[in-house]
Each structure stands twice: as C-alpha cells, then as structure tokens.
Amino acid sequence: MNILQSVWQWVTDPAHLSGPDGIPTRLGEHLHLSIESVLLGALIALPAGIVLGHYGRFGNLAINISNVGRAVPSFGILVIAFQVFGLGDLPIILALTALAIPPMVTNSYVALREVDPDVKDAARGMGYRELAQLMRVELPLAIPLIMAGVRTSAVQVVATATLAALVAGGGLGRYIVDGLARDDQPRLVAGALLVAGLALATELLLAGLQRLLVPRGLRLLKTPAVERATSIKAA
Amino acid sequence: MRTSLFLDAVDPWVNWDWLSNHVPYVLAAVQEHVTLTLIAVVAGLAISLPLGVLAHRWAGLRFPLLTVFGIFYTIPSLALFAFLIPYTGLGGTTAEIPLIGYNVLVLVRNVLVGLDGVPADVLDAADGMGYRPFARLVRVELPLALPAILAGLRVATVSTIGIVTITAVIGLGGLGQLILRGLIESFHTPLVVATVLSIFLALVADLALAGAQRFIVPWARPA
Known about the structure:
The complex is a heterodimer. Chain A is an all-alpha fold. In chain A, 75% of the residues lie in helices and 0% in strands. In chain A, helix 1 (3-12) crosses helix 9. The N and C termini of chain B lie far apart (44 Å). The longest helix of chain B has 35 residues, at 23-57. Chain B has one domain (25-216): MetI-like fold. The chains are: A mainly alpha, B mainly alpha.
C-alpha cells in the first residue's frame, strides 16, 4: 500500500482521534508547552529589550545575545534541562524559554533604537514626559519589529517543542519519535505532517497578527514589510 | 530527579577521567559534525548563488522561490527527517536534504539583498566601460554583494552546527550522538562536553567567517 494512503488511514483512525495518545491531546500538549514558553520568554525578553533600546545602553549585549543564542544547540539544552530537573513539563518549558528569549531581546532593542530621533524630539517638544513618550510614541512605532521577534521566537519554540518527545515529554513530536522507535511509518509521517502543519499555522497566524498591529500611521506610509532583525533556526 | 548530593558525587557534570580516555571518540564526533555542516553549507551556497542570480534577473521568480523555501524553512527538521525516511532511509541523504534546504533560504535571501544593494550608478559605469552582462555580474555585482552573502553564510553555518545535533535521531549527529548517549545512559559527561563543543564550534566558525569577511571585503565593516 502506498505510504500516503496508510498515513491517511492512520490519521482518520478513530483510535488516534481521542485518548491520551490521540491527536487532540498531543496537539494540546504541544500548544501548552509552546505558549507557556513564549509567554514566559516574552515577559523577560520584551521589557529588557525595550528598556535597553529606549536608553540605548548595552547595545552589544542586546545584539550579541542573539548571536550566542543561535550557537546553542537546542537538543543539548533540552537534554541538560531534563537531566537537571527530571521528568515533566518544567525542564522542557525552561529550555524552550531560554531559546525564546534571544530573538525577542534583540528585535525589541533594535526596534526601539530605530525609532526616528526627529520623532522623539518632536514628542519631547510637544511636552511628552519620558514614560508617555515611550508608551505612546516609541512603542507604537516599534511594534512591527518587536512582533517580528515574537514571531521568530514562537515559530522556533513550536519547532523545538517537537524535540520534547526525546526527553519523554508530550506534544506532536511523540508520533515521530515513537514512529521511529517502532518502525511505524504511517505514524512517523502522520506526525511529520501534523508538526509541519502546526509550525506553518503558527507562522501564518503571527504574520497576520503582526500586520494587524502595525499602527495606522505607519500603514499609510506604505513602508515595506518589516524584515526580521534576526533569523534563527533552532530545530 | 537528580537532587541528591550523593548522585551528583557519582556523576559529576564532567568526568575528566572518562573524557581523557575518550579523546579519539570525541574527536571523531567533532569530525563528523564538521563534515555534515560543511556539506550542508557548501551545497547550500552552490545552489543559492545561481538561484539568487536568476531570481535577481527575473523578478517573477523571486516571490515563488522565497515562498517555497520559506515554507520549507518553517518546517522543523525532525518533521522533514520523518517525511524523508520512507524514501531515503536513515542516514546522510535524509540528514542533508533539510539542512541544505534551510541554508538555501538564508543564502538566496542574502544574495538577493546583496545584488539589490548594488547602486545603479555602478551598473551604468560598468556598462559604459563595456562590461558584458556575465563579466559585469562576476566582476562588479557579485563582489559588491559579497558582504551580504558572507553575512548569510555566517547565519547559515551557525544554525547548521546547532541543527546537526538533531540528526542523532536518525543515526548521525556528530556531537549530537554524544548528547543522545548522555540522555540514554543518564551520563552527564558526553552530554555536557558535546553541548559545550557544539557552542564552541559555532562561535569559532562565526568568528572565522567574520575574520574572512574583514579580509575579503575590507571596505565593508562586518555587521
């Protein structure tokens, strides 16, 4: 039988649509690991990057954290976290959070740095105080690039969460790892399809969100689509 | 959970005795790692240069090319390995196809950025001096695009070194093989040594390419 046919049979088998190893459960685990890690990472990275960018301090640190972050093998970090904290979601979320932080710090730093100094002068001249200037002038202008960083991080976290299955975690990677271990090709390829689909859906969803969050004023300028300041491929 | 002091005493993060007895084993892993990385980066560059030049000449090619490789780039490596296993089995081909594909996206994008950045005046001057299209490409446009291409090469190399560890799952992995062993045997030394060496390899490769950038294109300060 053709591989695609057997994959289709596997995916539509009612036994794989419910229960602890069913597709909804595994998808839920994958989303839960990814969302918590990205949120935790954003909570740490965005304030840090925004403050550093606003004051223009420690620029080398903010830029280089991405270069160093890129050099860290996600597989190694995941296994080290597993050895330190043992079974469960905690080590996986900590490792994924660590991977999520660098692109968000760098992008938000660059985003704040690239706000036109004339605009900041104008805001100051109009009587904005520092906090109001940051919140109402600089941040709205920086949002597209900040969101680009969040998107890079989120896509990488969703991709790396696939590896959670290697350290006895859940998520859609389970099907790939189990499919390999049991030499069960329909399971293996079905897992690959689900993982690829989720990664692409994340990318599209966040690209849409990024577009929505561009302030109206910037949209009128018809600036070209924002390029990501960092390109990271961790898994 | 590995919280007891006793266990930590039994399995320290790095067992130097084990390490000193396994130097050839570790070096073989480094060598496999470097080989897998080199194939992925060199093949990626060999594909991206002509593709980037073509997409620069024919604007209609740019969007489909970047979209197709962008989709490929978004798919996690483990999933691509899984797609390929029924066709190419476990081993080198299955490992390299995703790695090369990822690098093609990064490099094509940077080739395009580099070629787009060549000033129109320079092209006019080259035409005026009688350069034919191919000579103009090789002797004027590509040299001016080099800073962007080298920047892409750095990103591609560093990412590849990290992702190569994951190919341990399909029986390769270089240093990833040591990480996998550390996981399976709950033995810290190969895990820590391989992770540190992988970071070290990536940083050394990045520095070496940054140095090459300074040397090859001294007029452009590396970003």
